[in-house]
């Protein structure tokens, strides 16, 4: 009886401990997501930092150069895109309620309905006093986002230095017979995440540029905004490209059905070229996920962690699939292929891990 009671108590304590740990992890899920994002960014930067280090540039300076380059690119995009976008909006959107009414009266079909809807929404806008509280909420949210970005970038920088120590610590607690597989799996996951992030950045730039130029040629309103939007939503798998295509067609319908058809065909052609030519050559099978797996991962991630975590759906799914391949299917991580995206898997070697 005493032994049974002791085992029952021990079992109850274990169950309670697991539940408490699960609840604690769920409470800090946002922090975990930010840390995972930081590790993914670090995986993308590490080859560049190491390449600069081999050329005599210290790693802290190499990280700083990467962040400076990112800030420069974002600044240039804002400098060139925002003025053009504002000009397009000023030309396309009526500036007063009376002008909007005249524009709606002179329009027909879908454009009339859109303008009427905009006018109704403008009439329902709250007064200045009613906007004070929402403005404060927006300010607080913007501050939280800024803190999250700074935290993520700082963790990414520190992880570049601490990754080797963390790997050595894990391997020191692991039986010798499993050390090689764990180390190779860790390196494979790191290489996949880095290749995926760098490839996605290239695709965003390519898609935004090509679609913006194509939309400008066919005379689509807001061509720059829609093209830039289509590039940015490339980071949202499946849903992003569909949303961009629907937006382009919807805006095209405000001009004519021919413009809408041309916009839809352009998005479709660019997407086909991207799927069958660009992605295989740039990303290859970096994450090794089927379209169905991607769709399920995106939906599950959005449901569990919120909309922002959709950005992490494919990287997280890639980690899970890699672990399942190694643990369940007994695949050798040292023999897995990793695509070369800007940087090879190893300097002077093929893209094989090992």
Q: How are the secondary structure elements laid out?
A:
Layout lengths: L1 H26 L1 H26 L4 H34 L4 H10 L2 H15 L8 H41 L3 H43 L4 H10 L6 H15 L3 H26 L8 H15 L7 H15 L27
Helix pairs in contact: 2-3, 2-6, 2-7, 4-5, 7-8, 7-10, 7-12, 8-9, 9-10, 11-12
Fill in the keyword field for this structure.
disordered C terminus, mainly alpha, 78% helix, single chain, 354 residues, 12 helices
Question: How is this structure best described in words?
Answer:
The chain has 354 residues and is an all-alpha fold. The protein has twelve helices and no strands. The protein starts with a helix and ends in a 27-residue tail after the last helix.
Strand content: under 5%
The pLDDT mean sits at 76
Q: Tell me the number of helical segments per DSSP (H or I, 4 or more residues long).
A: 12
For the sheet with most strands, the description reads: none
Q: Please tell me how large the radius of gyration is.
A: 25 Å
Poorly predicted runs are 347-354
Rounded to the nearest angstrom, the distance between the terminal CA atoms is 55 Å
Overall outline: globular
- Helix/strand/pairing class, anyone? mainly alpha
In N-to-C order, the SSE pattern is: HHHHHHHHHHHH
Helix content: over 70%
Q: What's the count of strands?
A: 0
Outline of the structure:
The protein is mainly α and 354 residues long. It is built from twelve helices and no strands.
């Amino acid at each position: 009886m005493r032994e049974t009671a002791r085992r029952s108590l021990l079992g109850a304590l274990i169950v309670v401990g697991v539940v408490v740990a699960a609840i604690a992890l769920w409470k800090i899920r946002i922090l975990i997501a930010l840390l995972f994002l930081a590790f993914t960014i670090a995986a993308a930067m590490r080859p560049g930092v190491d390449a600069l280090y081999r050329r005599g540039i210290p790693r802290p300076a190499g990280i700083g150069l990467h962040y400076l380059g990112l800030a420069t690119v974002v600044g240039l995009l804002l400098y060139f895109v925002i003025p053009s976008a504002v000009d397009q909006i000023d030309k396309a959107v009526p500036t007063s309620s009376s002008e909007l009414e005249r524009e709606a009266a002179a329009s027909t079909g879908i454009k009339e309905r859109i303008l009427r809807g905009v006018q109704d929404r403008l009439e329902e806008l709250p007064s200045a006093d009613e906007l004070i509280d929402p403005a404060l909420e927006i300010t607080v949210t913007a501050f939280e986002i800024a803190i999250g970005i700074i935290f993520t970038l700082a963790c990414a920088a520190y992880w570049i230095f601490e990754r080797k120590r963390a790997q050595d610590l894990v391997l020191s607690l692991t039986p010798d017979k499993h050390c090689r597989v764990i180390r190779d799996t860790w390196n494979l996951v790191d290489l996949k995440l880095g290749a995926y992030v760098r490839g996605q950045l290239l695709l965003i730039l390519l898609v935004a540029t090509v679609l913006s130029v194509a939309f400008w040629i066919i005379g689509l309103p807001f061509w720059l905004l829609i093209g830039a939007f289509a590039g940015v939503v490339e980071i949202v798998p499946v849903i992003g490209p569909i949303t961009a295509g629907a937006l382009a067609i919807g805006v095209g319908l405000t001009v004519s059905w021919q413009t809408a058809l041309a916009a839809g065909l352009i998005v479709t052609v660019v997407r086909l070229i991207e799927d069958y030519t660009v992605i295989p050559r740039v990303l290859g099978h970096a994450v090794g996920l089927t379209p169905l797996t991607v769709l399920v991962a995106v939906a599950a991630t959005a449901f569990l962690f919120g909309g922002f975590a959709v950005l992490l759906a494919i990287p997280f799914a890639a980690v899970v699939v890699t672990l399942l391949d190694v643990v369940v299917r007994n695949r050798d991580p040292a023999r897995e292929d990793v695509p070369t995206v800007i940087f090879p898997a190893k300097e002077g070697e093929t893209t094989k891990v090992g």
